[in-house]
Amino acid sequence: MNPPNKTRIYLSPPDIGELERRYVQEAFDSNWIAPLGPNVDGFEQELAAYVGSGHAAALVSGTAALHLALRLCGVGPGDEVVVSSLTFVASAAPVVQLGARCIFVDAETDSWNLDPALVAQLFEDRAREGRLPGALIVVHLYGQSADIDPLIELCDRYGVALIEDAAEALGATYKGKSPGSFGRAGIFSFNGNKIITSSGGGMLVSDDADLIAHARKLATQARDPAPHYEHTELGYNYRMSNVVAGIGRGQLATLDQKVAARRANFEHYVEGLGGLPGLEFQPEAAWGTHSRWLTCLTIDPQAFGTDREAIRLALEAENIEARPVWKPMHLQPVFQEAPMVGGAVSEDLFERGLCLPSGSSLSPADRERIIAIVRGCAR
User: Fold this and answer.
1) What's the distance, CA 371 to chain centroid?
2) In angstroms, what CA-CA distances link 188 with 59, 180, 329?
3) Could you tell me which of 163, 191, 161 has the C-alpha nearest to residue 179?
4) What's the pLDDT tens digit per position in 135-171?
5) pLDDT tens track for 119-138
6) pTM recorded for the entire structure
């Protein structure tokens, strides 16, 4: 049982301000609750401008955005899609829901993201067999961009659509640009634990105006232009409401401050824990800025004196939420039949990896409380 006198510290709680209230109040005052509305239009324009994409469609979730991206890139029954294995299930589920099959690929140690060398070998093998995948989904993990340039080169060479799952990486950079803005389509999430939240919601971005226009149509039940309801294809109820978009607009306006606060959390953790034997933090890759959506570390139990799970339970006993690194998709029962390329890196990160509380509203006192508990677990 958690101590009743200890305030719960969550892994990544919402950090809401007055600007969000203003946008939502405007939606109520104008009675423009749904469907769509000025906040949706504004959020799409502002998010597209921030990440450097030409166009954006505001949707009910990042998962919906990925589903539409796959469909609009032509993925369907019988296709294969290459997916980062070290990720949340939402990166892979839409592939199967479209009747396609996942091929999972391992991470590399520089960033914990998709290993381009393994993708290169896979594409070469598939090209030789005459069955190239329909798309590649690269996940930008925990606030850090994957190494994009070699993946773009590979996808261009073999004619494979590149889709970026940047749900966790808003506010990060790759060579000065935003992850999510390089591929045929990119997706972002505004779930309650993300670096900015609209209580839920997601965004599909692309430089392809036709792709985004078609996405908006599919997301609005694929209604054709007509005074009545006319449908020549089947769609979904995926569009974001004007109220939700108002929260997102207010959050986006303070994104840079939220990134700075999370990076400050990371620096304090490094200062307080960095000297402990057997403890290593997720590195920041040379190609960009890590937003530190979550501060993640690995524990060598031999050197540290205890394992990752013991630390997590020690934190939980003091009413502090921490979480293991994602369990790789190739280890999930639902994907047990899916092919896997590599696996040792992501399996090791899951076995030894832990995510510490990282919210942008985390107080210095909270950080010191967490640091003291982790230090107390060391040999």
Assistant:
1) 26
2) 10, 8, 20
3) 163
4) 999 999 999 999 999 999 999 999 999 999 999 999 9
5) 999 999 999 999 999 999 99
6) 0.96
